[in-house]
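Exercise: predict the fold of this chain.
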Amino acid sequence: MSSVSPHTSLHMPERHPFDPTGGAAPNLTASWARHWESNPDLDQIHDPDRGWLQRGELAQESVVRAGRLARIGLSPGDRVLLSAESSYDLVASYVAALRMGLVVIPTNTAYGARELKHVIQDARPKAALVDTPDKHAAIAEIDPGMLALSPSLNLPDGPTPLLDAAERESAALICYTSGTTGQPKGAVLSHANCLASAEGLRIAWRWQSQDRLLLCLPLFHMHGLGVGLHGTLYNGSSAVLYRGFDPDRLLSDVSAQCATLFFGVPTMYHRFASHPSVKKLTALRLCVSGSAPLPATLHEKIETATGQRVLERYGMTETLMLVSNPHDGERRPGTVGFPLPGVELRLEGEPAEIQVRGPNVFNGYWERPQANAEAFTYDGWFKTGDLGSKDSDGFISIVGRAKELIISGGYNIYPREVEDVLRKHSAIDDVAVVGESSDEWGERVIAYAVVSEPVRIQELREAIGDELAPFKHPRELHIVDALPRNALGKVQKHRLDRGRVLPD
C-alpha cells in the first residue's frame, strides 16, 4: 500500500491553509451569496441569447424563482430533476432551488424515456425542470402527478422562503452514475462535499475573482456543474455559457470575452489541435482536461502549437475532484498529478486500486445500503474502482479500471446497459460491449455479437432509438462465431480486440 497525505499536497501554497468549510460558510449557496453582496455590479454569467448578467441580477432572480418554487408547494429536502441545455434560466433556477434547500438531480439531456423513467422512479422527485416538449411528454407518461416545468419558471410569484439555510451536511445533489451492476445509482453529494471541492480547486488552480471561464461543458455533467459553475460562483468569477462545443466560436471568444480559463474533455482538445486558429489558446492562463485520459501525443500537439501545457486532473461523480497536475511546476503527460488539498489517496491491493477519503467524498448512494457497504472499506476509504500507480516523484497515473466503465467524450457508459438493449434485437444471440481506445473520444463503444441473421451497425443503432442516449450507441459492430468465456461462463472481454477474438 502507498498513500499520499493532504498535509504534503504540492498544491498548497506556503501560508495558505485548506479550509473545507470555505471560511466557515454555513452551506454552499451562502458561500456564493458573499460575492453577490460585496460586488453586485460585476459580470457573472453570459447567456448565448441574453448577453451578460451581473452578480446582483443572479442573486435577485434566484430570490424571485425560489418564491415561485415555494408557491407551488416545494419545500426544503424535496427533490427536483433538472435536464436542460445551458442557459441563464437554467443557472438561475438551479441556484434558486439550492438556496431554498431543495435537492437537485442533474440529468443528461440526451436521456430517453427509459433512462428518465429509472431516475424518476428511483429518486421520486416532486418536480422536473426540462426544456423540450418530448421531455414534458415523457414525464407526463412516467408520472402524471409530477410537475414538469420550464427552466424559465414562468409562474406566479410567491412569498420568499427562507434562503441559504440548508445544513452543511444536508444533500445538495443526487447525481446518477453507473455502478457495478450496470443500473445507475444516485450519488448523494452534500453542501459540505461541494464546498470542500470548490475550496480545493481554488487553491490548486489559483482561481481568482478576475478569472473568466469559457464553459461549454453541459451543466448536467459534474465537470461542467460541480467544477465549472460551482467554481465560478464560489470564487465570484464569471463564465460564458455555450450550448455545445463549437471550436470556431470558442477560439474567437478567447479574446472577444477576455477569457482566462477553459475546461474540456480530450475530444475537444483533439479538435482544437487541428484547428487553424488553435494559437488563440495562448491567451488563456489555464487549460484543464478531464473525464478521460488525454493522450500524451495530444498534450504535445497542443503545447507545440500554443505553449499551453494542458493541466490534466482526475475526479468522479462520487468524490468531485480528487487529483490534479500542479498549477505551478511540471505537468506530466500520462499522469493526473497529486491529491488536491484535503484529499487522502492510497493505492491498495494488487493490482493497486485507488482509494480515497476526505471532506469532498460523498457518504453514499441514494437508498442503496448494499452498494454503500461494497463501495467503502472497513476503515472508511472509498473504493474508486480505478487502478493506479505512483511514480518516484509522486505523480499518480490511472492505469485501468477494475470496473468496466467506458468513458467516451467525457460521458460514462456502462457496457451491461448497452448489452441489455442490444439483446432485444431479434438477430442478436449473444453480445459483449467494450471500450476501444480513441485519440478523439478517449474510448469508443464497440459491440461484438453472435448473430442468427445478417445485421448491420446502422440497423442496430436505429433499432435502439431512444432507448439509449446517442453517446451510448455502438460505433462499430464485429460479428464473431462465439464470445470468449471462461469456465464459469464469464465473457473474457480482454480477448476482444480490434475486431478479433484473441487466443486464450
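Check your answer against the key: The first helix runs from residue 28 to 38.
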